[in-house]
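so im writing up the methods section and need the ABC transporter substrate-binding protein record in one place, dumping it here so i stop losing it
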Amino acid sequence: MFYRASLQAAATLASLSLLAGCGLLSDSSSETNQQISVGTTSSPSTLDPAAAWDGSWELMRNVFQTLVSFPTGSTSPEPDAAKECRFTDATSMAYRCTLRSGLKFSNGEKVDAEAVKYSIDRIAKIKVKGGPAGLLGSLDRVETKGDDTVVFHLSKADATFPFILATPAMSLVAPGDYPADSVREDGKVTGSGPYVLDSYEPGKKAELTRNSGYKGFADRKNDAVTIRYFDDSAPMVEALKKKEIDATYRGLTAEEVIGLEDDKKEDNGLQIVESVGADIRFLVFNPKDPAAGKLAVRQAIAQVVDRDALVAKVYQGTAEPLYSMVPKGIAGHATSFFDSFGDPDVAKARETLSEAGITEPVEMTFWYTTDRYGSSTAPEFAELKRQLEASGLFRITLKSAPWKSFQEGFNKGDYPVFGRGWFPDFPDPDNFIAPFVGQDSVTGTPYLSSEITQELLPSSRRESDRGAVSDQFKRAQEILVKDVRLLPLWQGKLYVAAGEDIGGGERALDPQTVMQMWELYRKTSW
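--- predicted struct ---
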């Protein structure tokens, strides 16, 4: 097993505090046949881990296994399908895992070393655009030794590799049911996780039942979970109040959070748990667009955007301004954009444009997704439009699309400017820089920076003490500010709202901010 000397950020993310309602107390007792229903506004875009680098992880964490994972409260990856994992050399170039004995997929196939190799190899072979193949940039090859041992040989030192293996993208799949060179698209899942996916209706619901053959770290406190997918948070909250669902995760608006927290409102039998979040929102500029491709235009937008007003008007205290791609609570966080641009200043923005020979209002189109980041996304972009047009320097057209078509659009380079959200793959500064740079940027827009990709990231990955990599990531952020290809906007908080009879909410979010459904249970007494 690979251990970290210190990862305070993960501990912060894993700790949750009760804000309102009754206490969510741990209760080891469990009724038989307990069933829990959870609502979310973030539905999967795919059921195949080889294609997933988004909110699809929510479902995957609960139906698949990874070699290592993040049990609640952990600060480093710990064994799940593996019984032991560790680096075998001092240079962090070979990572060896030994599997638990007797593991099987839900179709009866063995979870052995060959299945592990098959699962990881197909990610790189399929290489879905915008998918998780980019996480395996340091992997050279996967070697099997017997039925129960796998060795990951790296092409370069990478102290973050165990964290990568802990992501749901690295879920183990049954070779017999998953094509080696294409994404599985029959709407079914064959895994070895805590639950079995009994049925799935895209955009509507997923039915999970306890996997009787599961062997791993998850201590399941319920027997079945129904995940309901909502297009909007309002009907989701209404369903919670009517007790049609037991809990919600992702998608609550600021008004809904505040309403649930308000002690003066009549008792509605609900409670809410807040997590210190590492999820961020930012704008992506397409350098091939005639307007967004101009540095002066990007700098002027960065000079005009008022994050304080955005957060106050749209998020009402449920988020905070962000001036760095690395959020607060993560090693290497800085305030680089504020240091360079200071407070919003229209005069400076006008001067920047004028010096570049731009004297007429810049016409631009901003895109956002309607069903990925919650119902506040549309008001957020309306506020961005208001701010930019109020400066007299811009004329903004807003366009939106559901996540699937939105993702296809930005991966094709169709959007001049678009909004993205990022939930951490793992709680490390590397994960807030590396995915957005290089030829295979997760934004779909290549961002070539040789200093970041060839110097700063490799240097930081040789350091096993992740608290000691701040200098490399502060320099990376200076480069991002100079280019303004990405413009951080805000850092959020995560909320779980639940009926007062539901326990386990304070343990349900792992350091990747993925909900571990097995932690939720119905209290037997008060």
